[in-house]
Amino acid sequence: MKHAGQRTPHQAKAKRQAANEIARGFAQAVAAHNAGSHLQAQALCEQVLQRQPDHFNALHLLGTSKFATQQFAEAERLLKRAVALEPRSAAAHYHLALAQFALRQFNAARASCELALAVQPNFPLALNNLGNALNELDELERAVECYSRAIAYKPDYAEAFYNRGAVLSRLERFAEALVSFDRALALQPAHALALDTRGVALIELRRFDDAIESIERALAIRPNFANACVHRGRALASLGQFDRAIADYEKALSISPELEIALLGLTAAYLLTHRIADATATALRALAVAPDSAHALAIAGQCCARCGDVEGAIRHFDRALALKPNFTYLITEKIFALDAAPWAGAVEHQEVRREWWDRIGSKLAPQSPVRYPNARDPARRIVLGYVSSDFRNHSAALCFGEVLRNHDHTAFEVVCYSCSPIRDSMTEELERSADRWVDASRLSDEELAERIRADRIDILIDLSGHTAGNRLPVFARKPAPIAVSGFGSGSGTGLPTVDYLFADPVSTPPDVRHLYPERIYDLPCLITLGAPPAESRTLEPPCIAKGHVTFGVFNRIEKISANNIPVWSRILGAVPGSRLVLKNFALADPALAHQMVAKFVAHGIAADRITCLGQTTRGEHLAAYGGIDICLDPFPYNGGASTWEALHMAVPVVALLGNRSSGRAAAAILSSIGLTDWIANDEAGYVDVAVRHAAQPEQLRKLRQELADRIASSASGNTVLYTKAVEEAYRGFWKEYCGRSGAAA
Q: In whole angstroms, what is the distance from residue 323 CA to residue 344 CA?
């Protein structure tokens, strides 16, 4: 009789036969998997598991095959069973991590990769996937370390080079990213993602032509690569080639109609080409696709601002900043929008600038006193560096251009750092006014700072403030001994690394100066403007011939706040037969013009009393003043160049004295030439000033004939005298710097 547990030869043979059949079935599954026949491989693995449920290799292979057919949840379930059976299998942990990553379980994927690496530390695939998980979890520095370790074990690992480049780009270490992308492409030249993402890094490095070349290589490999179309559009827009950029964004949307970055790029291009209605519609599409996207909220806010809806703009910007607190461009947009907010005074303006400094600028500033090689000779020729993206046909250039033209080059060497690729007739003229001209449009902020140091600039002048195209990150790095902000925004930069701010006593009164980190230096006026040709002026008020007064507003639409329409409507109602001409490039958009007229109609003004004019040539623009009797300056965001321009064209301006620099600029200009009776302290006074002067056509005629001489004899309007005041300021700043003890700034 056989003992318990003792097998007969027949039973042993049957067991061997079953084991052989399982082995053959698994071998067939492996062969099918390797041949890409995943459904067959899965069926064979399931047959094996029916006979042996704890067959680790079959579970592992079935899970891997399920992953290959994108059955990620089933793959995860099977691979969890596999690693429970064999916790020392690095490959099983790795494949489980892949399934978890596909399911967006990034913490779980990280843990599985770490278990794989605990078993096999020199496992480059697991290191690469761990880097991917850490990237998704925003642990970017650790992700870079993982990719670098993977590359150390596998020097020909193109995907790890690509992934490292992508994360370095997220860290804004674009030059390092470029090295990784180039290495990936040396190993795998047809890596379309690497070519495209390399292009994005080149855009950030302001190497736009190189970016386009790289992205076009990606598109040659993948013609319907929607993201690459968007990125090429972005590079083209940076070069001012907006029509081509729009075509690229539209192509991307034809491929992927809900691609957020394409909608955002198209909206931005529409804004830059003054297609406000199209921009607004596209921004709404972007928000519908991504309602919680900081970028979509930001671009929608910009559209609101361009339509004069400042409250809507700030509401969008605040929501976006709650999602992305360190969004540099967004803080700048909010700063710009606050200029038009009626409730925002000097305190609010400085608070948001301090926010930019705390979140952005302070991270770039030198951590210890900087030593400069500049010779400390108070009497020598001072090297001035002017930084702007507006050395072109732009209202800002009409102001600071006069200082450039009138500089004493025996006492000052003038270096201009032009940060826009756009060149026009104004660019050519301003370049002739400089001793040295640097095309800084292709230089990153760090590269520009290094160039300024190498050029040994003594006084670096910001001409933009927080307006579009500014290079304030360069000023945060303190590349010159002295930094000044002027002629751009009287509200200042908020940067402690900017030493001085040009202002005047009216725009920046003494009781708010303690709020500014910059030291305030008073010029005769915040800005000046050169006189147009005398023959372009119309000295006779048009109301005398027409029999009715024509008011004019030749300002940006975003300066026309909700407060303006009812006040201007009251003026029109109080001056019988009067008309109002609104002129701005944005009003070429029929939808926006209709919307603007409707606002007046809602306040009881007939539509035929409102005329909207769009963009014209410079000559036509100046000629349009010939039909205006009195200009109405917007509030709380005043004109600047437009205020001077009206006065130069012999058209007086009504202004309201506001509660922040941008709301006091017009009053500062009028005060500087003695026209204080055209300044009101409140809305009722503003209406009274306009109505009173409109009723005195002979006084208007007398003033129009006097204005040119009044301006020319003033220190604010005479650009030669104004420039001398600026140069006296520079010399004083330099003498003070030279008198300080020690070599550090």
A: 23
